[in-house]
Specification:
Blueprint (H helix, E strand, L loop, with lengths): L4 E4 L2 E8 L7 H6 L2 E8 L2 E9 H11 L5 E5 L2 E12 L6 E8 L6 E10 L3 H4 L3 E5 L3 E6 L8 E4 L9 E3 L9 E3 L6 E7 L24 E3 L5 E3 L16
Parallel strand pairs: 2-5, 3-7, 8-11
Antiparallel strand pairs: 1-2, 2-4, 3-4, 5-6, 6-7, 8-10, 9-14, 10-13, 12-14, 15-16
């Protein structure tokens, strides 16, 4: 299998092979340094592929899930976007990758990461806490014009309680943000300290109004009540003659 290569700054290629291994046999393939994947898309028959893990990691580090990759499968070159990376829940090792075939002449919608820039005066000088309420934004653009991230300048937040919404962002000529205008991206809230005052309220003691009668536990584990002791009747006094 050929290694990943960059044909020119705008075209990143990644080599793969048609996959013939499935099921339990994939474990051996992963041990040998390869990972399974699938390519899917509109009006495209899904293909199972195999690619080298080292090559994929280099490519993924560069484009993430917003950059176009030219995936070679045999003699065919397919423009794709990475659409899902499955990782092991414990070791975080990549187990499987999905690629979405795209049409370079048609606009698509995809999630783009949000990146904060600048410093908020409300945080540094007024003790506020910056909250990120939207880590990604849905964007529509031609595949080759999808931004790697969207920068949001948080220095515009001067006071605690202020926020930045989608409507506050500058419009771009090459992509369109497909989110509601009032969607909040960043906000600064007041810092709340946890109360360290010990609780002094105690639960009210249960008041017992009736003294329970004594009980005994038998050898069989059954609790029996002691019979109440009865006072014998008084004998009548004999009259003296």
């Amino acid at each position: 299998m050929k290694k990943t290569k960059v044909a020119h700054p705008d075209k990143l290629t990644l080599s793969s092979d048609v996959r013939t291994v499935f099921g339990k046999k994939l474990r051996k393939m992963r041990i040998q340094g390869s990972i399974p994947g699938n390519v899917f898309g509109t009006d495209f028959k899904s293909q199972s592929i195999t690619l080298r893990l080292v090559d994929f990691l280099k490519t993924y580090k560069t484009v993430k899930e917003t950059g176009v990759i030219y995936l070679t499968v045999g003699k065919e070159e397919i423009p794709v976007l990475i659409r899902g990376v499955q990782k092991h829940p414990v070791t975080d090792i990549i187990l499987h990758v999905n690629f979405r075939k795209i049409d370079l002449k048609k606009k698509i919608e995809t999630a783009v990461p949000v990146k904060s820039i600048g410093v908020s005066e409300a945080v540094t000088q007024k003790g506020g806490v910056l909250l990120t309420l939207a880590e990604t934004l849905l964007v529509e653009a031609l595949p080759q014009e999808i931004p790697s991230h969207i920068e949001v300048n948080i220095s515009t937040i001067k006071e605690v309680g202020q926020e930045i919404k989608v409507s506050d962002l500058r419009k771009s000529e090459i992509y369109e943000i497909k989110e509601l205008p009032d969607k909040v991206i960043f906000s600064v809230v007041a810092h709340k300290e946890e109360s360290i005052t010990p609780e002094t309220t105690t639960e009210q003691s249960e008041v017992i109004t009736e003294v329970p009668k004594p009980e005994e536990e038998t050898a069989a584990g059954v609790v029996e009540k002691k019979p109440e002791e009865k006072t014998p009747p008084a004998t009548p006094e004999k009259k003296e003659k």
